[in-house]
Amino acid sequence: MDSQFRLAEVVVSTAGRDRGKYYLVVDIEDSQYVKVADGDKKKLKRPKRKNIKHLRATGYVIEELAIWLSEGKRVRNEDIKKAIKEYEKNEEAN
User: 60: Cβ–Cβ under 8 A, 6 or more apart, which residues?
Assistant: First the structure.
């Protein structure tokens, strides 16, 4: 797993219909693909598989969710939506 993305990192889509949309990395498949969810259209049960070439890392990792995801604990879609909304709010402030 030499992916540049980390579990529970907020990322931005740079290609496709969803360009500019924020997601949370919920699984790292291999060095080429990650699975992302937004808690709304793409939920945890059916995350979107994205090529890492089509994503931009923000560097913002939600540590609590990273721990939960790595330990297999239950993460709710509401938690993901809240984390993304919080990140967007911080981005607007800067």
Answer: 9, 10, 87, 90
Q: Is residue 21 part of a domain?
A: yes
The model's pTM? 0.92
Is 3 inside any structural domain?
no
Cα separation of 9 and 23, whole Å? 8
Residue 73 falls inside a structural domain? yes
The terminus-to-terminus CA distance of the chain in angstroms comes to 32
User: 17 lies in which domain range?
Assistant: 9-93
The total domain count for the chain is 1
Cross-strand bridge partners of residue 28: 34
Q: Per residue of the chain (94 residues), what is the pLDDT tens digit?
A: 456 899 999 999 999 999 999 999 999 999 999 999 999 999 999 999 999 999 999 999 999 999 999 999 999 999 999 999 999 998 888 7
